Amino acid sequence: MKPTNIKDPEYFHKVIDCQYACPSHTPVPEYIRLISQGKYDEAFKINWISNVFPGILGRICDRPCEPACRRTRVEETPVAICRLKRVAADFKSDSTDFMPEVPQEKNGRKIALIGGGPASLTVARDLLPLGYTIDLYDDQSKAGGFIRTQVPSFRLPEKVLNQEVDRILNMGVTTHFNHYIDNLQTIIDKGYDAIFVGTGAPRGRDLPNLPGRQEGDASIFIGIEWLASVLYRHVTSTPEKVLVLGGGNTAMDCCRTARRLGGEDVRVIVRSPRADMKASPWEIEDAEEEGIPIIDNHSPIDFVIEDGQLIGMHFQKMTADYDENGKRTLLPADEAPVFMACDQVILAVGQQNAFPFIKPESNIAINKYGLPELDETTYQSSVPNIFFGGDAAFGPKNVITAVAHGHQAAISIDLFCQGKDLHVRPAPWTNLVNQKMGIQDWMYDSQVSTDKRYAVPTVDRVKSLKNRLVEVELGFSKKTGHEEALRCLNCDVQTVFEHSTCIECDACVDICPEFCINFLENGDEEDLRTRLLAPADELSQSLYVSPPLPTGRVMVKDENVCLHCGLCAERCPTSSWEMMQFTYNSAVAGQK
Amino acid sequence: MSFERPDFRHPKLAKNSAGYSRKDYEGAISTLCAGCGHDSTTSALIQACFELSIEPHRVAKMSGIGCSSKTPAYFLSRSHGFNSVHGRMPSVATGANMANRDLLYIGISGDGDTASIGMGQFAHALRRNLNLNYICMNNGCYGLTKGQDSATADKGSAGKKGKPNPYTSIDLCELAIELGASYVARGFSGDKTQLVPLIKGAIAHNGLAFIDVISPCVTFNNTSTSTKSYEYVRDHIEATNTFDFVPLQQEILAHYPEGTSQEVVMHDGSIIHLHKADSSKDVTDRMKCVNNLELEKSKGRLLTGLLYVNPEIMETHDIINSTLRPLNSLTEADLCPGNNALQMINASLR
Ligand SMILES: Cc1cc2nc3c(=O)[nH]c(=O)nc-3n(C[C@H](O)[C@H](O)[C@H](O)COP(=O)(O)OP(=O)(O)OC[C@H]3O[C@@H](n4cnc5c(N)ncnc54)[C@H](O)[C@@H]3O)c2cc1C
Ligand SMILES: Cc1ncc(C[n+]2csc(CCOP(=O)(O)OP(=O)(O)O)c2C)c(N)n1
Ligand code: SF4
Ligand code: SF4
Ligand code: SF4
Ligand SMILES: [Mg+2]
User: Is the pLDDT of residue B244 over 80?
Assistant: First the structure.
């Protein structure tokens, strides 16, 4: 293999598994370290810069970082990255030092944001400090988008939501609430320099052709519409027996909300096997803990109506068949239909994009999936000054993805307004700082904690089931937050190798608890992976290869399960290994 | 500074046939200087014991005094051990071995511990062919007492103090062959591909197995003027042979070309396959072995590998015809066989 180019910012970035997996590349280990030091304000600031909504995301983030966490390859459970974010938000002081300055004098550019969800709010946050004038249009009475109308209060209290949304609006957004845009052309005609469409994926799927759907309509609801009605108190109770159809997170929110509105016998019915459910494991766990059974492999046949009243549903039991490629087909089992009695059905069987407000006259190209044709880097549509982001761009995802889109769209809009090439993106800001302190002492906590993941304490179930506004999770205490923070392996503290001083004494090889380091004859990657001291079959993890050493061999380090413990650097007599903190901050709009 | 190693180990590391992972053979974290060759030798020992599926509690580690003699603290923490006084490892090992012949004995010593103060003890352990794996971590100096020249320092070699050694050096391998060791090898701490099989062969061997491991002292004797530095050793090393150690009951899979390979069947039935550059170099012929060492030395080369082996000769227990059982398993009945036995002995003496 060729020597690794550690000057490429993506090399060490990839070693920081969590940050790399995060759509907006939040510097996770850095904020976790600050939490372990009790520096909550600094930890909060890092989050706010990168993911804009620390208090919200510390509760409801889909957390793609956690399955990526290095600890899952070393032991069973990842660091509770998401809940530590909440620790930073919970214990930060009232100081607002982290807020960027918004210039009084504007730069003369006007931007319209359609939709007030996290994507649009991120664009506003990024562009306001650069002097842009921002108009935001949303059909709801308050900003927040789906995190306001969909995510139930027992997962995200309104107070937290308001605080983080208002923080951005107060930077100087001109809001137009209760303002549904029925034709985008009306906005285009206003002559904005750029328009950002962040209207989400607002349509819930129905099962219109299932027998009984029309007759039972009064007792059958579309999940996302029903959740919004609960928020606005149009719906304040449910009957005793409720069936929720669907296996995603919307289904989990619906069933848990129904449980709080009077549903005694609430069940979730899923077509596919449980293992294939889309809902996050922790959401499923929470639902089950609230006494909601998840019944898998049941496909709906019809709604059963008696005297004009919904009394239940029939289901066909299914079996999943997997071919040798692991591709699944669901087949009806050879069994009679199952009847389940119910008073109400909530359909949470999917979400769709819809752009009824985009008319042909605006010339925005829409692809065969009903989504806008976009440049995947710049999020620019076929109309140069119109950009998309969030669920409206590539279909329903999650908040952190919407935020990441918002950042990129803001960069694009800023470049566009300056007449620059949108594809010449600003580079991430990186830095490498030696962690040596004294002879063999590190500036970070190099000891590796063997503690198991700490559970977040919750309120009494009975209490929380009585009131949908009571938040279930209490958050970590400072003490538990500290312990959990110490579980972080500091993957941003990189092992940096200097081949010119190495005397090939093997001290690093011998001390490394994970057998990461090897000195051997070079070869191509496939061959090297078979010759390392420990199995190196985790192909997504890089091999760090040095230039040739005096014996003609090369140093090869498998990054896979390195604990960043620093022992190699401690045992090296020539300081050929150094522990260096690598900072990677994604580019932001306005960065030179 | 970390005084602890993390608890985690690579999740995909295999266990050996005795059900142990490599971690089960580790010891405390080393307090030797960073980069000391002794730590690599220790690591090779751990690897050899792991690969041979040795049960840690069936091992006794013996040592004298020196940085090298401290290393038993850094491997096999579940084994028995005795850290004796300077140069006295062989006699303590002899006593232990006489009392319990069922354990595997690993004697760790240094060049000072062996070739200076312990020379007399060393010679007699060799002469008796004690069933002991004698590993001398040879750095050409007294590391623990700040690097004075030892008796194995080459004439003219200079360590950190910069003064060339005026005396002739002792070649411990030649001495071991001459004085009766039945397995003699030389390795280098910086070459585990060679060292691990050498140690495995020694463990399988019944009788005194001596390995002289060139193990640089990074702090006091790794200078450009020293002949025991990493660089010098790498530049002057000459492997007499490379070899595969095939433990008992394992199928021989590799094919060895005739003439260049030699097969040595060990006492326990395991086999050592030697691949030699020069087929005339027979490792079972004592005289030739000493000649080879001298020949390479005259060319300024340091001969490594398996230098001499004789699996046939008797170890101490066989020579003195001692009981086959460990002493602690002998009962009163075994030790006081009664009047009849006494009468028989008396009769035999009449
Ligand atoms: C039940 C449910 C639970 C969820 N839970 C989570 C979770 O726990 N974690 C997570 O990360 N994600 C979750 N999501 C997904 C997440 O809410 C979305 O991915 C995210 O909000 C998308 O942000 P956005 O800015 O693209 O749009 P949205 O948040 O959807 O905001 C779009 C806004 O635009 C408004 N709008 C639409 N069209 C127009 C128009 N023509 N004129 C004016 N206004 C308009 C909408 O009313 C809305 O207010 C959940 C989604 C649902 C349905
Ligand atoms: C009876 C006695 N004499 C002298 C000493 C001092 N002493 C301690 S270690 C040592 C030499 C050790 O050299 P070596 O065996 O080569 O070990 P190294 O430290 O080089 O590994 C000496 C002379 C002692 N401890 N005991
Ligand atoms: S930091 Fe060094 S010693 Fe520790 S696991 Fe990583 S490579 Fe091994
Ligand atoms: S410990 Fe340092 S000098 Fe020794 S092999 Fe490792 S990197 Fe090289
Ligand atoms: S003084 Fe020399 S022999 Fe002793 S630990 Fe240090 S490097 Fe090793
Ligand atoms: Mg010595």
Answer: no
> How many other C-beta atoms can be found within 10 angstroms of the C-beta atom of residue A517?
25
CB proximity A536 to B under 8 Å: no
Residue-level pLDDT at B1: 47
- Kindly list the residues from chain B whose CB atom is less than 8 angstroms away from the CB atom of residue A563: 6, 8
What is the rounded average pLDDT of the residues A372-393? Answer: 97
Task: Provide mean pLDDT across the span A455-467.
Answer: 93
As assigned by CATH, the class of the B22-320 domain is alpha beta
DSSP-based three-state secondary structure for B247: coil
Say if A486 is an interface residue toward chain B (CB within 8 Å).
no
Q: Which residues in chain B have their CB less than 8 angstroms from residue A531's CB?
A: none
Domain ranges of chain A: 110-202+353-417, 204-351
Q: Does A507 touch chain B (CB under 8 A)?
A: yes
Burial (CB < 10 A; 0-12, 13-18, 19+), residue A350, is middle
Query: CB–CB of A513 and B192 under 8 A?
Result: no
CATH number of A110-202+353-417: 3.50.50.60
CB A248 near ligand 1, within 6 Å:
no
Among B32, B39, B65, B214, say which to mutate for ligand 2: greatest number of ligand atoms within 8 Å of CB: B65
A561 touches chain B (CB under 8 A): yes
- Give the mean pLDDT of A467-489: 97
Q: Is the shortest distance between the CB of B40 and ligand 5 below 6 Å? A: no
Q: Which atom of ligand 3 is nearest to the CA of A564?
A: 1
User: One fold for both A110-202+353-417 and A204-351?
Assistant: yes
Within 13 Å of residue B291, how many CA atoms lie on the same side as its CB?
Answer: 9
Residue A471, φ and ψ in degrees, nearest 5: -70, 130
**Banded pLDDT at A242 (limits 50, 70, 90):** very high
Torsion of CA B13, B18, B19, B22, to 10 degrees: -40
pLDDT, mean over chain A: 96
Q: Which ligand is nearest to the CA of A200?
A: 1
Backbone angles phi, psi at B203, to 5 degrees: -65, -40
Q: Check residue B59 and report its DSSP letter.
A: E
- pLDDT tens readout for residues B249-278: 555 555 555 555 667 777 777 777 766 556
User: ipTM of this predicted complex?
Assistant: 0.88
Taking 70 as the threshold, does the pLDDT of residue B2 lie above it? no
Nearest C-alpha of chain A: how many angstroms from B65?
22
Give the model's pLDDT for residue B276.
59
CATH, range A204-351:
3.50.50.60
Q: Is the separation of the CB atoms in A284 and A252 below 8 Å?
A: yes
At residue A475, the 3 state secondary structure works out as coil
What is the distance in A from the centroid of ligand 5 to the CA of B138?
11
pLDDT: which is higher, B280 or A352: A352
Q: What is the DSSP letter of A349?
A: S
Give the pLDDT confidence of B301-311 residue by residue, as tens digits.
888 889 999 98
Residues with CB under 6 Å of ligand 4 are A 502-508, 571-574, 576-577; B 35
DSSP state of A238: -
pLDDT exceeding 70 applies to what percent of chain A? 99
Q: Which tens digit of pLDDT belongs to each residue from B114-148?
A: 999 999 999 999 999 999 999 999 999 999 999 99
Q: Does A511 touch chain B (CB under 8 A)?
A: yes
Measured between CA atoms, the residue of chain A closest to residue B28 is A511
Least Cα distance to A257 among A345, A154, A351, A145 occurs for A154
- Burial of residue B98 (CB within 10 Å: 0-12, 13-18, 19+) is middle
Domain ranges of chain B: 22-320
Q: Which residues of B touch A506 (CB under 8 A)?
A: 39-40, 43, 189-190, 192
Does A468 score more than 50 pLDDT? yes
